[in-house]
Automatic annotation (TrEMBL):
UniProt lineage: Bacteria, Pseudomonadati, Bacteroidota, Cytophagia, Cytophagales
Species of origin: Dyadobacter fermentans
Name of the protein this chain belongs to: MFS family permease
tRNA processing keyword on record: no
TM spans (from-to): 30-48, 54-74, 86-106, 112-136, 156-175, 187-205, 236-259, 265-287, 299-321, 327-349, 361-386, 418-437
Keywords of this entry: Membrane, Transmembrane, Transmembrane helix
Domain of life the protein comes from: Bacteria
One protein family per Pfam: MFS_1
Length: 502
Protein backbone atom coordinates (compact mmCIF):
# COMPACT_ATOMS: atom_id res chain seq x y z
CA UNK A 1 0.00 0.00 0.00
CA UNK A 2 1.64 3.25 -1.20
CA UNK A 3 0.31 6.26 0.68
CA UNK A 4 2.74 8.95 -0.49
CA UNK A 5 1.22 12.22 -1.82
CA UNK A 6 1.81 13.45 -5.38
CA UNK A 7 2.94 16.91 -6.46
CA UNK A 8 0.36 17.01 -9.26
CA UNK A 9 -2.87 15.12 -9.82
CA UNK A 10 -4.35 14.56 -13.25
CA UNK A 11 -8.02 15.27 -13.90
CA UNK A 12 -8.63 11.52 -14.18
CA UNK A 13 -7.04 10.92 -10.76
CA UNK A 14 -9.15 13.67 -9.20
CA UNK A 15 -12.39 12.31 -10.69
CA UNK A 16 -11.51 8.77 -9.66
CA UNK A 17 -10.70 9.97 -6.14
CA UNK A 18 -13.98 11.86 -5.85
CA UNK A 19 -15.94 8.75 -6.90
CA UNK A 20 -14.09 6.63 -4.36
CA UNK A 21 -14.78 9.15 -1.59
CA UNK A 22 -18.50 8.77 -2.37
CA UNK A 23 -18.18 4.99 -1.88
CA UNK A 24 -16.12 5.46 1.27
CA UNK A 25 -18.87 7.74 2.58
CA UNK A 26 -21.35 4.87 2.22
CA UNK A 27 -19.18 2.49 4.27
CA UNK A 28 -18.76 5.15 6.96
CA UNK A 29 -22.52 5.76 7.03
CA UNK A 30 -23.25 2.02 7.30
CA UNK A 31 -20.78 1.77 10.18
CA UNK A 32 -22.33 4.79 11.89
CA UNK A 33 -25.90 3.52 11.45
CA UNK A 34 -25.04 0.14 12.95
CA UNK A 35 -23.33 1.65 16.01
CA UNK A 36 -24.90 5.05 16.59
CA UNK A 37 -28.09 6.97 17.16
CA UNK A 38 -31.11 5.08 18.43
CA UNK A 39 -29.41 1.68 18.31
CA UNK A 40 -26.47 2.80 20.47
CA UNK A 41 -28.78 4.39 23.05
CA UNK A 42 -31.00 1.27 23.12
CA UNK A 43 -27.90 -0.92 23.53
CA UNK A 44 -26.60 1.24 26.41
CA UNK A 45 -30.01 1.26 28.15
CA UNK A 46 -30.15 -2.52 27.77
CA UNK A 47 -26.83 -2.68 29.63
CA UNK A 48 -28.30 -0.49 32.39
CA UNK A 49 -26.84 2.94 31.54
CA UNK A 50 -28.05 5.90 33.63
CA UNK A 51 -28.70 9.49 32.46
CA UNK A 52 -25.14 10.67 33.13
CA UNK A 53 -23.68 7.70 31.22
CA UNK A 54 -26.02 8.45 28.31
CA UNK A 55 -24.80 12.05 28.39
CA UNK A 56 -21.18 10.89 28.52
CA UNK A 57 -21.89 8.54 25.62
CA UNK A 58 -23.18 11.48 23.58
CA UNK A 59 -20.22 13.67 24.55
CA UNK A 60 -17.48 11.21 23.51
CA UNK A 61 -17.48 12.08 19.77
CA UNK A 62 -16.73 15.72 20.54
CA UNK A 63 -14.80 15.27 23.80
CA UNK A 64 -12.07 13.41 21.90
CA UNK A 65 -11.69 16.29 19.43
CA UNK A 66 -9.25 17.91 21.86
CA UNK A 67 -6.72 15.35 20.59
CA UNK A 68 -6.81 16.80 17.09
CA UNK A 69 -3.54 18.61 17.81
CA UNK A 70 -2.01 15.15 17.49
CA UNK A 71 -3.15 15.14 13.86
CA UNK A 72 -1.34 18.42 13.20
CA UNK A 73 1.83 17.11 14.83
CA UNK A 74 1.75 13.91 12.75
CA UNK A 75 1.18 15.79 9.50
CA UNK A 76 3.98 18.24 10.27
CA UNK A 77 6.31 15.34 11.00
CA UNK A 78 5.43 13.15 7.99
CA UNK A 79 3.63 15.57 5.61
CA UNK A 80 1.27 12.75 4.62
CA UNK A 81 -2.42 13.40 5.29
CA UNK A 82 -3.54 10.19 3.60
CA UNK A 83 -1.35 8.00 5.80
CA UNK A 84 -2.61 9.69 8.96
CA UNK A 85 -6.25 9.36 7.85
CA UNK A 86 -5.99 5.72 6.77
CA UNK A 87 -3.93 4.40 9.71
CA UNK A 88 -6.05 6.23 12.31
CA UNK A 89 -9.24 5.04 10.60
CA UNK A 90 -8.04 1.44 10.93
CA UNK A 91 -7.18 1.96 14.61
CA UNK A 92 -10.61 3.52 15.15
CA UNK A 93 -12.56 0.60 13.69
CA UNK A 94 -10.83 -2.19 15.66
CA UNK A 95 -12.55 -1.23 18.99
CA UNK A 96 -15.92 -1.87 17.32
CA UNK A 97 -14.90 -5.50 16.87
CA UNK A 98 -13.98 -5.65 20.58
CA UNK A 99 -17.36 -4.18 21.59
CA UNK A 100 -18.99 -6.92 19.52
CA UNK A 101 -17.27 -9.48 21.78
CA UNK A 102 -18.50 -7.98 25.08
CA UNK A 103 -21.82 -9.89 25.36
CA UNK A 104 -20.07 -13.14 24.45
CA UNK A 105 -17.45 -12.60 27.21
CA UNK A 106 -19.60 -11.05 29.97
CA UNK A 107 -23.11 -12.06 28.92
CA UNK A 108 -25.93 -9.81 30.15
CA UNK A 109 -23.62 -8.42 32.83
CA UNK A 110 -21.41 -6.62 30.32
CA UNK A 111 -20.41 -3.34 32.05
CA UNK A 112 -21.47 -0.04 30.48
CA UNK A 113 -18.13 1.47 31.47
CA UNK A 114 -16.34 -1.04 29.24
CA UNK A 115 -18.57 0.01 26.34
CA UNK A 116 -17.61 3.64 27.05
CA UNK A 117 -13.93 2.65 27.26
CA UNK A 118 -13.84 1.07 23.80
CA UNK A 119 -15.97 3.81 22.27
CA UNK A 120 -13.51 6.36 23.63
CA UNK A 121 -10.75 4.89 21.44
CA UNK A 122 -13.12 4.58 18.49
CA UNK A 123 -13.83 8.31 18.67
CA UNK A 124 -10.25 9.20 19.66
CA UNK A 125 -8.63 7.82 16.52
CA UNK A 126 -11.54 9.08 14.44
CA UNK A 127 -10.88 12.58 15.79
CA UNK A 128 -7.20 12.35 14.88
CA UNK A 129 -8.09 11.18 11.37
CA UNK A 130 -10.67 13.96 10.91
CA UNK A 131 -8.48 17.07 10.45
CA UNK A 132 -6.14 15.34 8.02
CA UNK A 133 -9.16 14.10 6.02
CA UNK A 134 -10.72 17.59 5.97
CA UNK A 135 -7.51 19.28 4.80
CA UNK A 136 -6.99 16.51 2.23
CA UNK A 137 -10.53 16.96 0.86
CA UNK A 138 -10.12 20.75 0.72
CA UNK A 139 -7.23 20.28 -1.72
CA UNK A 140 -8.85 17.40 -3.62
CA UNK A 141 -12.37 18.76 -4.16
CA UNK A 142 -12.54 21.83 -6.47
CA UNK A 143 -13.60 24.86 -4.42
CA UNK A 144 -16.48 25.86 -6.71
CA UNK A 145 -18.25 22.53 -6.16
CA UNK A 146 -17.74 22.01 -2.41
CA UNK A 147 -21.42 22.52 -1.56
CA UNK A 148 -22.80 20.42 -4.41
CA UNK A 149 -20.29 17.57 -3.94
CA UNK A 150 -20.69 17.18 -0.18
CA UNK A 151 -24.47 17.55 -0.39
CA UNK A 152 -24.42 14.72 -2.96
CA UNK A 153 -22.20 12.62 -0.68
CA UNK A 154 -24.51 13.37 2.25
CA UNK A 155 -27.61 12.52 0.21
CA UNK A 156 -26.24 9.10 -0.82
CA UNK A 157 -25.25 8.39 2.78
CA UNK A 158 -28.69 9.32 4.10
CA UNK A 159 -30.46 7.12 1.55
CA UNK A 160 -28.36 4.19 2.76
CA UNK A 161 -29.10 5.18 6.35
CA UNK A 162 -32.86 5.06 5.67
CA UNK A 163 -32.76 1.62 4.02
CA UNK A 164 -30.42 0.10 6.61
CA UNK A 165 -32.31 1.63 9.55
CA UNK A 166 -35.61 0.11 8.38
CA UNK A 167 -34.05 -3.35 8.06
CA UNK A 168 -32.33 -3.10 11.46
CA UNK A 169 -35.42 -1.76 13.24
CA UNK A 170 -37.61 -4.59 11.95
CA UNK A 171 -34.95 -7.19 12.78
CA UNK A 172 -34.15 -5.89 16.28
CA UNK A 173 -37.80 -5.40 17.27
CA UNK A 174 -38.74 -8.84 15.95
CA UNK A 175 -35.92 -10.46 17.91
CA UNK A 176 -36.85 -8.47 21.05
CA UNK A 177 -40.46 -9.74 20.87
CA UNK A 178 -39.90 -13.33 19.76
CA UNK A 179 -36.39 -14.15 21.00
CA UNK A 180 -35.61 -11.70 23.85
CA UNK A 181 -32.67 -13.83 25.00
CA UNK A 182 -30.84 -12.92 21.78
CA UNK A 183 -31.45 -9.15 21.88
CA UNK A 184 -28.05 -8.37 23.38
CA UNK A 185 -26.34 -10.75 20.96
CA UNK A 186 -28.00 -8.91 18.07
CA UNK A 187 -26.40 -5.63 19.11
CA UNK A 188 -23.00 -7.28 19.47
CA UNK A 189 -23.26 -8.67 15.93
CA UNK A 190 -24.18 -5.19 14.68
CA UNK A 191 -21.01 -3.74 16.23
CA UNK A 192 -18.81 -6.50 14.84
CA UNK A 193 -20.31 -6.03 11.37
CA UNK A 194 -19.76 -2.27 11.68
CA UNK A 195 -16.08 -2.89 12.44
CA UNK A 196 -15.66 -5.03 9.33
CA UNK A 197 -17.45 -2.50 7.09
CA UNK A 198 -15.43 0.32 8.63
CA UNK A 199 -12.16 -1.44 7.86
CA UNK A 200 -13.24 -1.89 4.25
CA UNK A 201 -13.91 1.87 4.14
CA UNK A 202 -10.37 2.52 5.37
CA UNK A 203 -9.07 0.38 2.50
CA UNK A 204 -11.11 2.43 0.00
CA UNK A 205 -9.68 5.62 1.52
CA UNK A 206 -6.15 4.32 0.98
CA UNK A 207 -6.75 4.23 -2.79
CA UNK A 208 -7.63 7.93 -3.07
CA UNK A 209 -4.73 10.13 -4.30
CA UNK A 210 -3.46 13.04 -2.22
CA UNK A 211 -2.03 16.28 -3.63
CA UNK A 212 1.20 17.44 -1.99
CA UNK A 213 0.76 20.09 0.69
CA UNK A 214 3.14 22.38 2.52
CA UNK A 215 2.52 22.87 6.23
CA UNK A 216 4.06 25.70 8.21
CA UNK A 217 6.89 24.49 10.50
CA UNK A 218 6.17 27.13 13.13
CA UNK A 219 5.83 26.27 16.82
CA UNK A 220 2.65 24.25 17.25
CA UNK A 221 1.30 26.46 20.05
CA UNK A 222 1.89 29.60 17.97
CA UNK A 223 0.11 27.86 15.11
CA UNK A 224 -2.81 27.11 17.42
CA UNK A 225 -3.07 30.76 18.52
CA UNK A 226 -2.90 32.16 14.96
CA UNK A 227 -6.54 31.36 14.02
CA UNK A 228 -7.66 32.93 17.31
CA UNK A 229 -6.13 36.23 16.18
CA UNK A 230 -8.35 36.18 13.10
CA UNK A 231 -11.29 38.31 14.28
CA UNK A 232 -13.85 36.96 11.82
CA UNK A 233 -12.83 33.34 12.43
CA UNK A 234 -13.03 33.99 16.18
CA UNK A 235 -16.61 35.20 15.75
CA UNK A 236 -17.39 31.99 13.88
CA UNK A 237 -15.93 29.98 16.78
CA UNK A 238 -18.13 31.85 19.27
CA UNK A 239 -21.30 31.21 17.27
CA UNK A 240 -20.41 27.59 16.47
CA UNK A 241 -19.58 26.83 20.12
CA UNK A 242 -22.76 28.45 21.41
CA UNK A 243 -24.85 26.65 18.79
CA UNK A 244 -23.38 23.21 19.52
CA UNK A 245 -23.76 23.70 23.28
CA UNK A 246 -27.42 24.65 22.83
CA UNK A 247 -28.13 21.74 20.48
CA UNK A 248 -26.27 19.06 22.43
CA UNK A 249 -27.70 19.85 25.84
CA UNK A 250 -31.04 18.31 24.80
CA UNK A 251 -30.67 16.41 21.50
CA UNK A 252 -28.97 13.26 22.91
CA UNK A 253 -31.95 12.70 25.19
CA UNK A 254 -34.71 12.82 22.58
CA UNK A 255 -34.34 9.08 22.00
CA UNK A 256 -34.16 8.33 25.74
CA UNK A 257 -37.36 10.36 26.23
CA UNK A 258 -39.18 8.37 23.55
CA UNK A 259 -37.92 5.01 24.84
CA UNK A 260 -38.34 5.53 28.59
CA UNK A 261 -41.05 8.17 29.07
CA UNK A 262 -43.29 7.65 26.04
CA UNK A 263 -42.64 3.89 25.98
CA UNK A 264 -42.18 3.77 22.20
CA UNK A 265 -40.41 0.81 20.60
CA UNK A 266 -37.80 0.92 17.85
CA UNK A 267 -40.52 0.26 15.28
CA UNK A 268 -41.93 3.68 16.14
CA UNK A 269 -38.68 5.56 16.78
CA UNK A 270 -36.66 4.39 13.77
CA UNK A 271 -39.39 5.36 11.23
CA UNK A 272 -39.42 8.82 12.82
CA UNK A 273 -35.65 8.99 12.38
CA UNK A 274 -36.09 7.84 8.79
CA UNK A 275 -38.70 10.56 8.25
CA UNK A 276 -36.12 13.07 9.42
CA UNK A 277 -33.56 11.55 7.05
CA UNK A 278 -35.98 11.69 4.12
CA UNK A 279 -36.66 15.34 4.86
CA UNK A 280 -32.91 15.92 4.95
CA UNK A 281 -32.41 14.04 1.67
CA UNK A 282 -35.14 16.07 -0.01
CA UNK A 283 -33.61 19.41 1.01
CA UNK A 284 -29.83 18.95 1.26
CA UNK A 285 -29.29 19.28 -2.49
CA UNK A 286 -31.22 22.56 -2.48
CA UNK A 287 -29.23 23.85 0.52
CA UNK A 288 -25.97 22.90 -1.24
CA UNK A 289 -26.88 24.80 -4.41
CA UNK A 290 -28.00 27.88 -2.49
CA UNK A 291 -24.92 27.78 -0.21
CA UNK A 292 -22.61 27.82 -3.25
CA UNK A 293 -24.66 30.46 -5.07
CA UNK A 294 -25.25 32.83 -2.13
CA UNK A 295 -23.63 32.05 1.24
CA UNK A 296 -23.48 29.42 3.97
CA UNK A 297 -24.30 32.00 6.62
CA UNK A 298 -27.60 32.81 4.90
CA UNK A 299 -28.57 29.13 4.98
CA UNK A 300 -27.86 29.02 8.73
CA UNK A 301 -29.90 32.20 9.26
CA UNK A 302 -32.90 30.52 7.60
CA UNK A 303 -32.54 27.03 9.10
CA UNK A 304 -31.60 27.90 12.71
CA UNK A 305 -35.00 29.44 13.61
CA UNK A 306 -36.73 26.40 12.11
CA UNK A 307 -34.67 24.11 14.34
CA UNK A 308 -35.56 26.31 17.34
CA UNK A 309 -39.23 25.74 16.54
CA UNK A 310 -38.59 21.97 16.70
CA UNK A 311 -36.93 22.16 20.14
CA UNK A 312 -39.83 24.20 21.52
CA UNK A 313 -42.28 21.65 20.09
CA UNK A 314 -40.57 18.86 22.07
CA UNK A 315 -41.84 20.54 25.26
CA UNK A 316 -45.41 19.71 24.17
CA UNK A 317 -44.80 16.05 23.33
CA UNK A 318 -46.50 13.78 25.87
CA UNK A 319 -48.92 16.41 27.21
CA UNK A 320 -51.76 14.10 26.19
CA UNK A 321 -51.73 10.34 26.46
CA UNK A 322 -53.10 9.82 22.96
CA UNK A 323 -50.58 7.90 20.86
CA UNK A 324 -51.95 9.37 17.63
CA UNK A 325 -51.57 13.01 18.71
CA UNK A 326 -48.05 12.38 20.01
CA UNK A 327 -47.00 10.58 16.83
CA UNK A 328 -48.39 13.36 14.61
CA UNK A 329 -46.45 15.98 16.59
CA UNK A 330 -43.29 13.83 16.57
CA UNK A 331 -43.61 13.32 12.81
CA UNK A 332 -43.84 17.09 12.22
CA UNK A 333 -40.87 17.71 14.52
CA UNK A 334 -38.70 15.14 12.75
CA UNK A 335 -39.61 16.40 9.28
CA UNK A 336 -38.78 20.00 10.11
CA UNK A 337 -35.64 19.18 12.11
CA UNK A 338 -34.36 16.96 9.29
CA UNK A 339 -34.66 19.79 6.76
CA UNK A 340 -33.19 22.44 9.07
CA UNK A 341 -30.31 20.27 10.32
CA UNK A 342 -29.37 19.36 6.74
CA UNK A 343 -28.84 23.04 5.95
CA UNK A 344 -27.14 23.93 9.23
CA UNK A 345 -24.66 21.03 9.24
CA UNK A 346 -23.73 21.52 5.59
CA UNK A 347 -23.31 25.28 6.03
CA UNK A 348 -21.26 25.00 9.24
CA UNK A 349 -18.87 22.56 7.56
CA UNK A 350 -18.53 24.67 4.42
CA UNK A 351 -18.16 28.02 6.16
CA UNK A 352 -15.28 26.61 8.22
CA UNK A 353 -13.59 25.43 5.02
CA UNK A 354 -14.30 28.75 3.32
CA UNK A 355 -12.89 30.99 6.06
CA UNK A 356 -9.74 28.87 6.49
CA UNK A 357 -6.72 29.94 4.37
CA UNK A 358 -5.65 27.12 2.01
CA UNK A 359 -2.13 26.69 3.41
CA UNK A 360 -3.37 26.73 7.00
CA UNK A 361 -6.64 24.87 6.51
CA UNK A 362 -5.74 22.00 8.83
CA UNK A 363 -4.71 24.44 11.58
CA UNK A 364 -7.88 26.51 11.33
CA UNK A 365 -10.18 23.47 11.11
CA UNK A 366 -8.43 21.71 14.00
CA UNK A 367 -8.68 24.79 16.21
CA UNK A 368 -12.36 25.08 15.28
CA UNK A 369 -13.04 21.42 16.09
CA UNK A 370 -11.04 21.47 19.34
CA UNK A 371 -12.68 24.60 20.75
CA UNK A 372 -16.22 23.71 19.72
CA UNK A 373 -15.73 20.17 21.03
CA UNK A 374 -15.24 21.49 24.56
CA UNK A 375 -18.71 23.04 24.53
CA UNK A 376 -20.47 20.28 22.61
CA UNK A 377 -19.03 17.60 24.92
CA UNK A 378 -19.86 19.45 28.14
CA UNK A 379 -23.47 19.99 27.04
CA UNK A 380 -24.70 16.33 27.15
CA UNK A 381 -23.04 15.71 30.52
CA UNK A 382 -24.66 18.85 31.95
CA UNK A 383 -27.89 17.74 30.30
CA UNK A 384 -27.64 14.39 32.10
CA UNK A 385 -27.23 16.12 35.47
CA UNK A 386 -30.15 18.46 34.73
CA UNK A 387 -32.36 15.52 33.71
CA UNK A 388 -31.61 13.82 37.04
CA UNK A 389 -32.28 17.08 38.91
CA UNK A 390 -35.70 17.59 37.29
CA UNK A 391 -36.74 13.93 37.68
CA UNK A 392 -38.78 14.66 40.82
CA UNK A 393 -39.89 18.16 39.75
CA UNK A 394 -42.87 19.09 37.62
CA UNK A 395 -44.62 22.19 36.27
CA UNK A 396 -48.19 21.75 35.06
CA UNK A 397 -50.35 24.46 33.48
CA UNK A 398 -54.05 23.64 33.19
CA UNK A 399 -57.10 25.35 31.73
CA UNK A 400 -60.48 24.53 33.26
CA UNK A 401 -63.98 25.09 31.90
CA UNK A 402 -66.88 25.00 34.32
CA UNK A 403 -70.51 25.20 33.22
CA UNK A 404 -73.99 24.06 34.23
CA UNK A 405 -73.72 20.84 32.23
CA UNK A 406 -70.00 20.48 31.54
CA UNK A 407 -66.83 20.58 33.53
CA UNK A 408 -63.64 20.01 31.57
CA UNK A 409 -59.93 20.42 32.26
CA UNK A 410 -57.33 20.88 29.53
CA UNK A 411 -53.65 20.32 30.03
CA UNK A 412 -51.84 23.20 28.29
CA UNK A 413 -48.27 22.52 29.34
CA UNK A 414 -46.49 19.81 31.31
CA UNK A 415 -42.83 20.23 32.13
CA UNK A 416 -40.99 17.42 33.87
CA UNK A 417 -37.67 15.54 33.71
CA UNK A 418 -37.02 15.85 29.96
CA UNK A 419 -39.28 18.75 28.99
CA UNK A 420 -37.43 21.09 31.34
CA UNK A 421 -34.25 20.11 29.55
CA UNK A 422 -35.80 20.76 26.13
CA UNK A 423 -36.99 24.22 27.24
CA UNK A 424 -33.48 25.09 28.46
CA UNK A 425 -32.12 23.94 25.08
CA UNK A 426 -34.61 26.21 23.29
CA UNK A 427 -33.56 29.25 25.33
CA UNK A 428 -29.88 28.58 24.64
CA UNK A 429 -30.66 28.18 20.92
CA UNK A 430 -32.20 31.66 20.87
CA UNK A 431 -29.03 33.06 22.46
CA UNK A 432 -26.83 31.29 19.87
CA UNK A 433 -28.86 32.64 16.93
CA UNK A 434 -28.19 36.21 18.08
CA UNK A 435 -24.45 35.64 17.60
CA UNK A 436 -24.69 34.74 13.90
CA UNK A 437 -24.90 38.29 12.44
CA UNK A 438 -21.40 39.05 13.76
CA UNK A 439 -19.82 36.52 11.37
CA UNK A 440 -18.84 37.87 7.95
CA UNK A 441 -18.68 35.65 4.87
CA UNK A 442 -17.45 36.63 1.43
CA UNK A 443 -20.25 36.83 -1.11
CA UNK A 444 -22.87 37.01 1.62
CA UNK A 445 -26.43 37.71 0.49
CA UNK A 446 -29.13 38.89 2.88
CA UNK A 447 -31.46 36.09 3.90
CA UNK A 448 -34.59 37.97 2.77
CA UNK A 449 -33.35 37.81 -0.84
CA UNK A 450 -32.51 34.12 -0.58
CA UNK A 451 -35.89 33.36 1.02
CA UNK A 452 -37.65 35.08 -1.86
CA UNK A 453 -35.65 33.10 -4.43
CA UNK A 454 -36.11 29.90 -2.40
CA UNK A 455 -39.88 30.36 -2.34
CA UNK A 456 -39.90 30.97 -6.09
CA UNK A 457 -37.83 27.83 -6.67
CA UNK A 458 -40.13 25.71 -4.52
CA UNK A 459 -43.32 27.16 -6.00
CA UNK A 460 -42.14 26.38 -9.50
CA UNK A 461 -42.25 22.70 -8.53
CA UNK A 462 -44.86 22.67 -5.79
CA UNK A 463 -47.23 25.56 -6.39
CA UNK A 464 -49.62 24.44 -3.67
CA UNK A 465 -46.90 24.12 -1.04
CA UNK A 466 -48.02 27.31 0.72
CA UNK A 467 -46.75 26.33 4.17
CA UNK A 468 -43.17 27.07 3.12
CA UNK A 469 -43.95 30.78 3.30
CA UNK A 470 -45.12 30.40 6.89
CA UNK A 471 -42.08 28.35 7.89
CA UNK A 472 -39.63 30.82 6.39
CA UNK A 473 -41.27 33.93 7.82
CA UNK A 474 -42.55 32.90 11.26
CA UNK A 475 -39.51 34.25 13.11
CA UNK A 476 -39.50 37.56 11.19
CA UNK A 477 -43.20 38.06 11.95
CA UNK A 478 -42.60 37.34 15.63
CA UNK A 479 -39.66 39.76 15.75
CA UNK A 480 -41.75 42.46 14.07
CA UNK A 481 -44.52 41.95 16.63
CA UNK A 482 -42.13 42.29 19.58
CA UNK A 483 -40.31 45.25 18.02
CA UNK A 484 -43.62 46.97 17.40
CA UNK A 485 -44.56 46.66 21.05
CA UNK A 486 -41.12 47.84 22.11
CA UNK A 487 -41.26 50.94 19.90
CA UNK A 488 -44.77 51.86 21.02
CA UNK A 489 -43.66 51.85 24.66
CA UNK A 490 -40.34 53.60 24.05
CA UNK A 491 -39.49 57.31 24.24
CA UNK A 492 -39.56 59.19 20.93
CA UNK A 493 -35.81 59.75 20.89
CA UNK A 494 -34.97 56.04 21.18
CA UNK A 495 -32.98 54.67 18.25
CA UNK A 496 -33.84 51.51 16.30
CA UNK A 497 -33.01 48.02 17.47
CA UNK A 498 -29.86 46.21 16.35
CA UNK A 499 -29.31 45.08 12.79
CA UNK A 500 -31.47 42.22 11.49
CA UNK A 501 -30.16 38.69 11.31
CA UNK A 502 -28.37 38.45 8.00
Amino acid sequence: MILRPKERLSEQEINSGLNTILKEGLTTEAMTTLTGGTFLVAFALLLGANNFQIGLLASLPTLTNVFQLTSIWLIRKYNNRRAVSVICSILARVPLLLIGLLPFVFGKEAPVNLLLFFLFFFYLFGSIAGPSWNAWMKDLVPGEMLGVYFSKRGRYAQILNVILSIILAIAVDSIRKNYPQFELTTYSIMFALAGIIGLSGAWLLSTVPEPMSILDRDNILRMFVRPLKDLNFRKLLVFNSAWLFAVNIATPFFTVFMLKTLGLTLLYIVPLTILSQLSSIATIGLWGVFADRYSNKTIIAICAPLYLLCVIAWCFVGIYYSLVSNMVLLALIHMLSGASNAGINLALTNIGLKLAPSREAIIYLSVKNIITSVFSSLAPMIGGFLADYFTLRQLRIMAEWTGPTLQKSFRLLLLHEWNFLFLIGAVLTVVAIQLLPRVREEGEVHKSIVKRILRTSIRSNLRDFFIIDVLLNWQSSLNTLFKGKRVSNAPVQQGPDGPPLS
